Known about the structure:
The structure is a single chain. By secondary structure, the chain is mainly alpha-helical. It has twelve helices and no strands. It comes from Streptomyces flavovirens.
Amino acid sequence: MTTAFRRSDRSDRRISPIFLGIAAVTAVAGWAVWTGFAEQTGFAVFLFVTSAWIVSLCLHEYAHARTALHSGDVSIGSKGYLTLNPLKYTHALLSIVLPVLFVIMGGIGLPGGAVYIERGRITGRWKHSLISAAGPLTNVLFAVVCTAPFWLGALDGVPLAFRLALAFLALLQVTAAILNFLPVPGLDGYGVIEPWLSYRIRRQVEPFAPFGLIAVFGLLWIPEVNGVFFDAVDALLRGLGVSEVETYCGLDTYRFWQEWFGDQDPWCAVRA
C-alpha cells in the first residue's frame, strides 16, 4: 500500500502532456517570431502570445496550489492541480477560452481559472493570505521577465516583431496582476485581506463573491474608469521601459486577421 501511495503521489505531480504541448507551441512560435521564419508574422505573434498567456494562467493557479500544499492542504495533489493541466483548473470555458477571448477582444488579462483549496486544513492568517497572493505574484514575475530586455536596455539585436510581442504580453500580465489584486470579493486581492476581517464582515460579503469579477468588468466599460485603469497600466509599463506605442502596436500585430479586412494600423504593420 505504501508503494502504491507513492506512485499515486508521483503521478499527481507529474507535469501534464497538455501543458508541455502548450509550452512547446510557445517555444516554436517564439522562435518563428524571432527568426522571421513565418510567412505571416502576425499569426506567429498570435500563437506565441496566446500560448504564453495560457502558460501563465496555468502557473498562476499552480502557484496557488503549491503554496496551499506547503501550508497544509495535502488534498491538492489528488485534484490534479500540481500537474499544470489547464483543464484541471475549474472549467475549460471559464479558465482558458474566456480569458483568451478577452485578450483577443480587448487586450485585457482576465483572471482565469481557480483551484479549490480546503481552507479548513490550513491554520494561520498569513498562510491564507500568501496562498491568495501567490497567483497574482506569478503574473508580476511574468511581467518583470517579459520587460527585462526593456528595463535592462538589452534590446539590441531583438527583432522588432518579438519586441512588440513581449510588450503586449507584458501588458496582459500587468492587467491580470492589477485586476487580481483588487480587494473585491471573488478576486485574489480580497482573499489576501479576508483572513484579517471579522467573521461578521466575511459572512456579509460572501454572497457577493460570485459577482465580483462581473462588477469589475462592468465598471471597466465606463469610459472614465477604463481611462484611469489603463493610465495606471501604462504608467507601470513605462516604469518598466515599455512605451504605450509598443503595447499598442503589439496588440495590433497580434490581431493578424485585421490585415485581411484592411483594419490593421499601417504604421504598426510597417514597423512589425
